[in-house]
Design brief:
8 strands; 8-stranded antiparallel β-sheet; Pnp Oxidase, Chain A
Length: about 150
């Protein structure tokens, strides 16, 4: 009987994230947490001879959020550019999970067309040990370039 060994779970700190913004690749060392979700959009379908409602997938939407340490002005500058010029910035983010102690290997996912929803433009907090900000975003496509494999026995 197969079971998951604790050593094959993935440690949250073992990974990397890179952003490609206007052709420049930048390590996102300031990320504390990032989560991206693809959600199906569904239509309700009623048919003759059936009282219940069925559901049909008709599309999807990509949303996400990240917690970042307040140590970069990159996102504030992108929002400032939009405020002043109307030019919006879309970029890609590649996230890799790579825990060397796990036998499942690596997973790399690229979020394409990431667009920020809102940004804190200035922040002070005398109670905070470290300054952090929550950043919500949308994305338009996703590419899985590397997948986890089955754990080794």
């Amino acid at each position: 009987m197969a079971f998951l060994k604790a050593r094959d779970t993935i440690t949250g700190q073992e990974g990397t994230a890179f952003a490609s913004i206007n052709g420049v690749v930048e390590e996102m060392f300031y990320i504390k947490k990032i989560e991206a979700t693809a959600e199906k959009q569904k239509a309700e379908v009623k048919t003759l001879g059936r009282r219940g409602v069925q559901h049909k997938a008709i599309g999807w939407s990509g949303t996400g959020n990240m917690t970042v340490y307040y140590v970069t002005s990159k996102f504030r500058q992108m929002m400032h550019d939009y405020i002043k010029t109307g030019k919006d910035t879309y970029f890609d983010v590649m996230i890799t999970n790579a825990d060397p102690s796990s036998s499942v290997g690596r997973q790399s996912v690229t979020l394409k067309g990431v667009n920020l929803n809102s940004i804190i433009m200035a922040l002070l907090d005398t109670d905070a040990e470290t300054l952090e900000e929550e950043v919500e975003f949308t994305f338009e496509d996703v590419v899985i370039t590397e997948s986890f494999k089955a754990p080794r026995p």
